Amino acid sequence: MGGIIYLKNQNEIREIINYVIKKGSTVIPETLSKQIFEYCGANIPKQGLAKTEEEAISLAKSIGFPVVLKVHSFEIVHKSDARGVLVGLSSPEAVKEGFRSITENVYKHLSEDKEIHIAVQKMVEPGTEIILGMKRDEVFGPTILFGLGGVWVEVLQDVSLRVAPLNERDIDEMFSEIRGSALLENFRGSPARDLSALKPLMFQIEQLAVVFPEISEIDLNPVFLYEEGNGAIIVDARIVLSSENWVPGVLE
Ligand code: ADP
Ligand code: MG
């Protein structure tokens, strides 16, 4: 990897980007951002979008319990802040109640004419929380970010940054230069994390930035990273488009 850009399913990804621009939004909601990464070949929890309680229940049954429900809306970026995320729902009844309470919560911040969906996702095993990201710097171009999630990023801002293109050695350096890097290795009896599973993801982020110049920012927060051999999965994703590509008035 590194050097030659090869990004799978570019037409499908283009379609999602065009759809979001057409909706008049510069932020690609989580479900669609994750769909883009799935097209790139990344691991995401099984997911679907529901419009009604019944749809949410039947999705949950086909995905398998426990599930997570999240608000899906072009107006809501920080879903937890709008009390739009519920984890650990283990029965059809819990999904029904969860659907209602998320809907009630988010419409406290949202006018009635705005449509929402509820995303139903497989609840995945907890892992070490990692953040990966990209920001397009005006001078240096795409800059890739790696860090530990939770307090490590919020309080300690313990992240590592590199200007693209990255090679594997750059990525290894990023892994080892954060202050919390010991947590990723064999640490107090907890086995080493599967860092090699993050590399393809970081290359995918880089490739998305190169192939789609209208992408200004990517945030994967969190990615759950498991012990060696068990990979990584994207739990939350957000792709931001530059407003230069925003086409006002083209609403469906
Ligand atoms: P926000 O928009 O508020 O950042 P997230 O999608 O990150 O919402 O969800 C909030 C938290 O819920 C995550 O940081 C994670 O700990 C947990 N979570 C979200 N989705 C899942 C999932 N599919 N499986 C397990 N835990 C999840
Ligand atoms: Mg998040």
Quick structural summary:
With 252 residues, the protein is an alpha+beta fold.
Name its key features.
four-stranded antiparallel beta sheet; globular; alpha+beta; 252 residues; binds magnesium ion; 31% helix; 7 helices; seven-stranded antiparallel beta sheet
H/E topology pattern:
HEHEHEEHEEEHEHHEEE
- Fraction in beta strands: 25-35%
Q: Residue-averaged pLDDT, rounded?
A: 93
Bound heterogens, unique = adenosine-5'-diphosphate, magnesium ion
> How large is the radius of gyration?
19 Å
Distance between the termini: 40 Å
Number of helices: 7
The unreliable regions are: 246-252
Would you report the number of β strands? 11
Taken from the alpha-carbon principal axes, the silhouette is globular
Secondary structure category? alpha+beta
Task: State the major sheet.
Answer: 7 strands, antiparallel
Helical fraction equals: 25-40%
Structural commentary:
The protein has 252 residues and is an alpha+beta fold. Helix content is 31%, strand content 26%. The protein has seven helices and eleven strands. The strands form two sheets. Strands 1, 6, 7, 8, 9, 10 and 11 form a seven-stranded antiparallel beta sheet that branches. A hairpin with a 6-residue loop joins strand 9 and strand 10. The radius of gyration is 19 Å and the shape is globular. The structure holds adenosine-5'-diphosphate and magnesium ion (MG). The site of adenosine-5'-diphosphate has 15 residues, from strand 3 and strand 4. The site of magnesium ion has 2 residues, from loops.
